[in-house]
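**User:** Here is a favour to ask of a fellow structure person. Please take any protein you like and set down a full record of it. No explanation is needed for now; the record alone will do.

**Assistant:**
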Amino acid sequence: MTIRPARLHDMSECADIINAWIDATEWMPRVHPADEVNDYYCDIVFSKYEVFVADNDDTVAGMVALAPDNMVNALYVHENQRGRGVGKALLDHAKAKATGPVELWTFVANSGAQAFYQREGFAEVRRTDGENEEHLPDILYRWQRPDAGVHP
């Protein structure tokens, strides 16, 4: 597996991973049709964020999108690649690329993601009652480099 910058033609595979996750997640409402999700990732995410993919034999195993302000906009792993370190590799790459603390949102209902982010050193900053387009309660997490704020 290799982590590399995404190319435009990868974005449809990234959208397929996200759409499959939405469809397989009982508590996740489908807010946008699959084709709109695809268009959003091809037209908006690719141009606004640094997008990296985990490439496994020329197949996108997962993706992470990092905003200029170090906010992780998306981190998704293909269902048949989960539990193999793909998410950790993508998150570690985003941490290495970030210019400061990294923040991300996850839904309160996504207990697996919460456990993952906590294992990876993220701390809860705040919660909302669903101030997002899905209207689902969510949690803002932040990660800082262990040496942040330490001055010799």
Remarks:
- The CA atoms of residues 36 and 93 lie 28 Å apart.
- The first strand starts at residue 2 and ends at 5.
- The chain has four helices and seven strands.
- The beta strands are 2-5, 50-56, 59-66, 71-77, 102-107, 123-128, 138-143.
